[in-house]
Amino acid sequence: WEKRARLQKDFEMTDKEVTVFVEMPAVGRYMEEVVGTDKNISRLTLNYILTDYLGLLKKEGKEIEENIGMISAKNFSKLMTMINDKKISSRGAKDILVLLMKEDGDPETVAEKNGLMQKSDEEEIKKIVEEIVKNNSGVVEDYKKGKMAALQFLVGQGMKATKGSANPEVLKKIIIENIK
């Protein structure tokens, strides 16, 4: 009960989340090791461990408590920091997680090697946006008429063109600037 109370207090967990970490002590220890003293990544870490990492372990048919350390806590923590610092997208993080399960390593090296670092270079993104706007004139007109879904479509096309590596916020800003 003390551990439940501490997890809820320290990590602002729901009862359901606490139950997972208490009933699987190795997962709880792993989560605390990943977060360490960086409370900025605690919510992100909880989400990625509970949904993505545990899901991948189950999908692979691996015993969770025995295999939770397949990705070192240090590397998992670095991955969470990369997301938090917007160096990689959520989609990129999921892809990196899969790659790290095959062979634990430095997530930044894995991201660079596989083209998963988020692109925020506006000049590079502008070229892609110009092409998207040119090829989707009907959607651009819909956006000009007030259809916000059209903007999301254009952002989606940009994400597709960059294989998910563009920073979606930068992409959206450049699309709006280009359409005006």
Number of strands: 0
**Largest sheet, if any?**
none
Principal-axis shape equals elongated
Through-space gap between termini:
58 Å
Gyration radius over CA: 20 Å
Return the string of H and E elements: HHHHHHHHHHHH
**Strand fraction:** under 5%
Low-pLDDT runs: none
Helix content estimate: over 70%
Chain-averaged pLDDT:
91
What structural class should be given to the helix and strand makeup? mainly alpha
Number of helices: 12
What's the structural blueprint in terms of helices and strands?
Layout: H1 2-11, H2 15-23, H3 25-35, H4 42-59, H5 64-67, H6 73-84, H7 90-102, H8 107-113, H9 122-135, H10 137-144, H11 148-161, H12 168-179
A few lines on this structure:
The protein is mostly helical. It has helices spanning 2-11, 15-23, 25-35, 42-59, 64-67, 73-84, 90-102, 107-113, 122-135, 137-144, 148-161, 168-179. It is elongated, with a radius of gyration of 20 Å.
Tell me what the structure shows.
The chain is an all-alpha fold and 180 residues long. It has twelve helices and no strands.
What are the main properties of this structure?
elongated; 73% helix; mainly alpha; 180 residues; 12 helices; single chain
